[in-house]
Each structure stands twice: as C-alpha cells, then as structure tokens.
Design goal:
6-stranded mixed beta sheet; globular
Length: 229
C-alpha cells in the first residue's frame, strides 16, 4: 500500500528531519512509528498525507507517486485517508456531531448517508449521548474519540495518527488504542506515531524506529525499548 524509496526531508538551515528512509507497509498492517522527540515521526507522517513534500526520494501510495501530485489533487488523495492529530484540531464552534458530520459534508454525501454514518461511528466510540456537546465541554479522551470518529466516518483504507494518546490518561489511552485495533481488524492500514513505550510493548505490532530522521529498527511484533530510544 505504501512504499517509500530513499526519502529525505531537509528544512531551512539544512535541518535534515528525514534522512534516506525506505520502507514498505502492506495493506491491512498495523505499524507503530516510534522514536524520541525530534526523531522525525511527525515529519514523516506529513510526507505521507502530503502536507509536506520530500526533498529527495519518492513515496508511492497504492502505486501512485504522491510527490508528483498537483496541489489541486491532494484533497482527493486525503479522501482515502483518516488523520488523527495530537492536538485534536476540532472546530470549537461545532458540536461533536457536526465535527464528525463535516467530513462527509465536504465530500458531498447525501444528508441521509451523513446522518446514518455519523450516528454509527458516534455509537461505536460511545459518544452518541454527547453528540450536541461542544469540544470545550468534553474531556480529552472524548475529544480524541471525536477525532477518531471523524477520521473513520467515511471508512478510509488508511488511518494515520500522530501521538493519539499523548494528552490522555492511561484509561483513555487504552480506549483509543482498542478503537484503532478494531478499525485495523476491519481491514484498514493503521500507522501510529507514538512515544508511549508501554502501549507499544504490550500490543506487539510492527515497529519502525527513527532516530535523527533515520530508520534504526524495523521489526514485526517489536517493542519500543531499543538501544538509544
């Protein structure tokens, strides 16, 4: 599903965030992207959903070289992705329901489909009862569940998440991880960037480890605690 070939990303002042990385993620895989702060996790995710473009190398998603996409085509690429950000990025003036429904509205779905799908995913994450609440009225865990519901409401084949448990307590963190695993079991490819070693070590999925923008480990059923991490 995703193939990266000798990808590098260099920012201004010669800051090399990603340094000659290559990897292949198959359809339906669950992959942890780990490493210390500044390792390049977020930069790599931004390359995958084309918020940034690489300085060298190429990234293929479903056989398409996303580096060559015109800016006008990027929204169509993202229609097949769900993205969960660490800082939520919810619309504060919209209710939980409207935050989730908005994803389908901008894709042009009929109102009947929007209503059915939004109710379905909010029930899945246990937030139907709080559908009329606003982001400032719910907990951090509930905000992240709202983000999860928004990301999967159109059943994307690829889900990209950046520190989805970073601001949550242990109980809320495990609830989010269970949702991610469940979505993966339905056939979606899931990528989770995280520094939560206890989660990585317990779940034991594939681990790609970065240090200074370089891949230092890539192991199936790996753990976080590599030398240097």
């Amino acid at each position: 599903m995703i193939r990266a070939f000798h990808v590098s990303k260099v920012y201004s002042r010669r800051v090399r965030a990603i340094d000659n990385v290559s990897f292949h993620i198959k359809k339906g895989e669950f992959v942890f992207l780990v490493g210390p702060a500044g390792a390049g996790k977020t930069s790599l995710l931004k390359l995958l959903y084309r918020e940034e473009t690489s300085t060298d190398g190429q990234i293929l998603i479903d056989g398409r070289n996303i580096e060559r996409l015109r800016e006008s085509k990027v929204p169509y690429l993202r229609r097949n992705m769900g993205i969960i950000f660490q800082d939520f990025k919810l619309f504060k003036h919209k209710s939980v329901y409207d935050n989730v429904a908005f994803s389908l509205q901008i894709l042009g779905f009929e109102q009947k489909i929007i209503a059915l799908q939004t109710e379905k995913v909010l029930n899945m994450v246990g937030l139907w009862g709080k559908r009329q609440y606003f982001p400032d009225e719910i907990s951090g865990g509930e905000k992240q569940k709202t983000c999860f519901a928004r990301a999967i409401v159109n059943s994307p084949p690829l889900l990209i998440t950046d520190e989805p448990t970073g601001n949550l307590d242990p109980e809320a963190s495990w609830e989010i991880m269970k949702l991610l695993l469940e979505f993966n079991m339905r056939g979606a490819t899931v990528i989770v960037a995280t520094h939560a070693s206890h989660i990585v070590d317990k779940i034991r999925k594939r681990v790609i480890a970065l240090i200074d923008g370089k891949i230092v480990k890539d192991e199936m059923e790996g753990v976080y605690n590599y030398d240097g991490l």
